[in-house]
Amino acid sequence: MFDTVVVATDGSESVKRAVTVAVDLAGRFGADVHAVSVVDAGEVDASPEQLRDEFRTALETHAESALSQILEQAGQGITTAVREGRPAPEICGYARDVDADLIVTGTRGRHGENRLLLGSVAERIVRTAPVPVLTVRQLESSADDDAMGADAASVTG
User: What pTM was estimated for this model as a whole?
Assistant: First the structure.
């Protein structure tokens, strides 16, 4: 059913659970896992011109660190990529490029609780993705963490 799973990361805490779910799901189907992090070009462009290069470099370093955390957490071979642009279109484009069968993402990102149900990037991915999307919320307590719990994830397609 799944040959390629893409997990999107921004390095936020909520992504850790999404990675766990993505790796578990991929393992069940023998699928390859790809992790992608996007340097938000909008954030770079909104920064003062004299600071843009330094800010871009800082965001690239953050993206690489987020991907390193996934590699460490997953404990298995995962293909990683850093892209620059608007996060949702870049993630969806990456999924197309690798012929993904599923995109997995957390429901909240670095910008926190600014949306009622889904973070704005997760919402845009759900609306525009070329493949089904599994959104994984972060539970309040890790003791309640059941990687495939019915209340923890939703699939759209």
Answer: 0.82
